[in-house]
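Give me C-alpha cells for this 271-residue protein.
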Amino acid sequence: MVVVAAAIMVVCNKNEFIRKPESPRTRSRTNVEVKEGALMVLVLKVISCAINYNDGLLKEEDLREVQKKNRLVKLPSLIEYVGYCLCCGSHFAGPVYEMKDYLDWTERKGIWTHSQKAPSPSPYGATVRSLVQAAFCMGLYLYLVPQFPLSRFTEPIYHEWGFWKRLGYQYMAGFTARWKYYFIWSISEAAIIISGLGFSGWTDSSPPKPRWDRAKNVDILGVELAKTAAQISLVWNIQVSTCQVHFNCMLDVNGCSPCLPIQGHRACPDA
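Here you go.
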C-alpha cells in the first residue's frame, strides 16, 4: 500500500522533475497551489486508509466508536485503493473522506443501499445550489481581483500610502483572495454531491430531508463573520482540518483533550 502511494505521488508530481528550471517571478503561483493541495489531500487519504486498516487488525472492544465505524477488516484491492486516492471529484481540493465510506458508496451499502422503503435521495437540488454558489464566488473574485491584486504589495506606490490605507488594502486583498478558494471548494462539493457520495444521511425533521454535508469544505458566512481566529478553523477547509484533528487525537495516548484546545470541535472522536 505504501509503495503504491509513493508511486501515485511521483506520478502526480512528475512535472516537477522533468520541466526546465524557472525563475521564481515567472513560476505560476496557482499551479504550485493546485499541486500542493492535491498532494496534501492524497497524503491525508493514504494516512486515513492505513490507520483504518490497522484498526481492522485490532480487537473491536479496544476501539473508539469512530474507529469501529471506519475500520477496514480486509485490505482493499488495488483498483479500490487507486480509485479512492485519485477520485476525480476531490483529488485537487478535497474533501477528504474515509475509505469505508467510499467502498460503501461504490458497493451501494450502508446509507447508500437502494430499496423501495428507503429510496435514494435526489442530488440535483443540492448540486444546483453548490454550482450557483460557485458561480457567485468566481464572479465576485473576477470583479475584485483587478482592483486589489496581490502584486501591488511589491509596487512603490503601496509604500507611499498611509497606515490606514495600507491596512484597508491588506484587508480587501485578503478578502478577494479567499473567494478563489470558495469557488474551487464549491465546485468540488457539487462534483461529490452529484455522484451521490456527498449524501450523509437524513435529518430528524418530519418529513426527513437528505443531508449533503459530507463534501462541505467551507462555511463562507462562518469565515467572514467569525468573531475569533479559533472559530475560523471550524469553518475553513472543514474536512481536512477534521481529518487532521481526528488522527492527532487517535495518536495521543492520553485521549483527545490535549490535542484539541478548541472546545466543541466537531472532529473530536466520541464527542
